[in-house]
Amino acid sequence: MIVIGIISLLIGFLLPVLNRARHAAARASCLSNLRQVHQMIVLYAHENRDQVPLGYRADRKQFNSMVYSATSNRFVLFGLIYGTFRMASPNVLFCPAETDERSMPATSANPWPPGVDPTKHTYAGYGFRPAVDIPDDAADWLASPLPRLQRFRNRAILADLTAMPARVDTRHKHGVNALYGDGSAKWVRRLSFDAHLAPCTSISPQFNDEQDAIWRALDAAP
């Protein structure tokens, strides 16, 4: 009985340590993903006069993570990057700590490759900075041009999803990883932006101002 008690005590000490190590590993892997996506964004910019799809859809700044739209049957946002590079594995576009199937690769809720089921949207696991409303049809970009990457050298351009509190809760919970235009990436504590995140209870234009405030908080994070 004494031995069993000691073993139980040791397990009680070790489990929190192992959990912290697991979360730290997932955060590090997530940062690595963001840096790899940055390389693709830079290459896309070089091929497109420095213009990149930093934006959102349908007047909702929380709609900033889509790859394929089943509504318009087009690659959009992250789909523009995917369509250029056709990465063999989608994992680089997804946070390894995610537990929500809607933001994980190749699930019934998020099919891969994009468009394999034309009746279902496909989403990336990260969100672009919602800088401009980007039309699905590239023919409309003349009236609404894509942002230029150079404008965002010291500003966040990509991050873990911050559409609603639940999107943060299902991965790192206490913060997000953010990528900046100069290629740097870092951990940002939830306390830095939670006051603006908490009111976002649905996907709606009414929260566009709160989403802008979240990204400004990522810009200013130490």
Outline of the structure:
This protein is α+β, with helices and mostly antiparallel strands.
Descriptive account of the structure:
The protein is of the alpha+beta class and 222 residues long. The protein has one domain (25-220). Helix content is 34%, strand content 14%. It is built from five helices and nine strands. The chain has a four-stranded antiparallel beta sheet, with helices on both faces. The chain is globular, with a radius of gyration of 19 Å. It starts with a helix and ends with a helix.
What's the arrangement of secondary structure elements?
Layout: H1 2-47, E1 55-56, E2 66-69, E3 74-75, H2 78-85, E4 122-123, E5 126-128, E6 132-133, E7 156-160, H3 165-169, E8 175-180, E9 185-189, H4 194-197, H5 208-220
Parallel strand pairs: 1-6
Antiparallel strand pairs: 2-3, 2-4, 5-7, 7-8, 8-9
